[in-house]
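Figure 6 in text form: structure in, sequence out.
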């Protein structure tokens, strides 16, 4: 159990971390929306890469399969960089 001094310090820290103004709340929502939109873009890009790879393999088009493979590799790198940046 925390003594009074420690619990007061924790309450002060929580109050500082809590968004105080409309601007900070709006910025926090904007950052969250930006993160969600990036995830949606990356998801659609991954689906496109997999479709290009599969279509290229089944159609016997080596160029399309290779493009899908390279795109998938590039997206894996983007995901890795985004995870490390957090």
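Output sequence:
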């Amino acid at each position: 159990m925390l003594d009074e001094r420690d619990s007061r310090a924790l309450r002060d820290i929580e109050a500082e971390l809590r968004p105080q103004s409309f601007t900070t709340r709006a910025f926090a929502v904007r950052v969250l929306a930006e993160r969600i939109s990036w995830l949606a873009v990356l998801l659609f890009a991954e689906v496109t890469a997999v479709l290009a790879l599969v279509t290229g393999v089944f159609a016997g088009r080596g160029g399309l399969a290779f493009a899908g493979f390279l795109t998938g590799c590039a997206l894996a790198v983007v995901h890795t960089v985004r995870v490390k940046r957090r």
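Caption detail: Residues 48 and 77 are 16 Å apart (CA to CA).
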